[in-house]
What does this fold into?
Amino acid sequence: MLGDLEDRIEARLAELRQHLPRLRVDSYGGELGDPDLLPGLLKGGPVVLFTVPRMRFTRRSNRRYALVVTFRLVIACRQPRDERASRRGIEADALGGVGSYALWEACVRQLTGWQPWADHPGIVPTEFNNLVNGRFQGEHYSVLGQSFSLEAGWEIPNEPGALFDAIDLNYHLPTDAAEPIATDHIDLGAP
It folds into this structure.
């Protein structure tokens, strides 16, 4: 379910590339504390990252639950000119001079009221945060956070299926080698 939601939201936000071809849309599961993360992501243009930080289940019956999914967009832009330009953009810059404010507004418009699944209420914006505004390695960054909520339903499956079909073990020597030197495949299917 989470993977499906992630794919649908990424596809919906990727539609913004019609107007901003250099926009990068991706999912993200880590922390923004890595000092090389934002500069690396923003080298090619503005970025929108998607993460699901919270889900709340409420029992409706013996096997059915109402579910509220809270997810967050991390919206980031950079400008070499100054900090204000990272937020407000530069209209004369044909190479993706959009600021974080305009990108934030486009993302909110794209998702608000949209229904990733039929028969469920649309997405609702909930909380906005200004995460980072500043200078790093000679460039100015503006990073905004926008949270949304989505109501859905979940039912316990009738037949318990296997969580995993198999396990693959890859052996790397040396440990940082890109390709494994050996692989074991363990089938978890019926004995």
Summary: The chain is about 20% helix and 40% strand.
